[in-house]
């Protein structure tokens, strides 16, 4: 368990571009509730905007998506975080994260088998 914690500690999330959301239009900021974050999922015409809870940033599945985004785009991208994943597959990830958070909340345990769910990378 300690080694898993260290793995999370070694991953650094740099989001200097988040403050730019405020400058793109006030209506864009107003539709993001406190405790949530706007991200873009998909590529090209498939790309869609998602509003996700900030707590996703600590979830191992989402951290894998962020690592893929870093490999694909680097940290120099402008605007919201872009996730290189098909929209439908990302929705599946959301369902898994929500189910896991619900299970974790109700059962007070957390399994480590996240990697078998990682199916959507390299679009």
The number of domains is 1
Q: Strand order within the widest sheet?
A: 2-1-3
Which range does the strand content fall in? 5-15%
- The total strand number stands at 3
- Distance N terminus to C terminus? 32 Å
Please outline the major beta sheet.
Answer: 3 strands, mixed
Parts with pLDDT < 50 across at least 5 consecutive residues: 1-27, 108-117
What letter string, H or E per element, gives the SSE order? HHEEHEH
Helix content: 25-40%
Briefly note the structural class of the backbone: alpha+beta
Average residue pLDDT: 72
Which of globular, elongated, flat, extended, rod-shaped describes the shape? globular
Gyration radius, rounded: 15 Å
Number of helices, where a helix is a run of at least 4 consecutive DSSP H or I residues:
4
Polypeptide structure, described:
The chain is of the alpha+beta class. The chain has one domain. The chain is built from 4 helices and 3 strands; from the N terminus they run H-H-E-E-H-E-H. The protein has a 3-stranded mixed β-sheet. The radius of gyration is 15 Å and the shape is globular. One of its GO terms (biological process) is response to auxin.
Summed up:
A hairpin with a 6-residue loop joins strand 1 (36-41) and strand 2.
Keywords:
disordered N terminus, globular, SAUR_fam, alpha+beta, three-stranded mixed beta sheet, 123 residues, 40% helix, 3 strands
Present the secondary structure layout.
Blueprint: H1 2-10, H2 26-30, E1 36-41, E2 48-53, H3 60-73, E3 81-83, H4 87-107
Parallel strand pairs: 1-3
Antiparallel strand pairs: 1-2
């Amino acid at each position: 368990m300690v080694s898993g914690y260290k793995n999370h500690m070694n991953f650094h999330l740099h989001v200097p571009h988040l403050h730019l959301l405020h400058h793109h239009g006030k209506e864009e900021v107003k539709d993001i509730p406190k405790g949530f974050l706007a991200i873009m999922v998909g590529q090209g015409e498939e790309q869609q905007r998602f509003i996700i809870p900030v707590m996703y940033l600590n979830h191992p599945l989402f951290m894998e998506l962020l690592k893929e985004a870093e490999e694909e785009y680097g940290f120099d991208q402008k605007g919201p975080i872009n996730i290189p994943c098909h929209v439908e597959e990302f929705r599946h990830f959301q369902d898994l994260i929500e189910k896991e958070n619900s299970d974790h909340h109700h059962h007070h345990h957390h399994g480590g088998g996240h990697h078998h769910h990682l199916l959507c990378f390299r679009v």
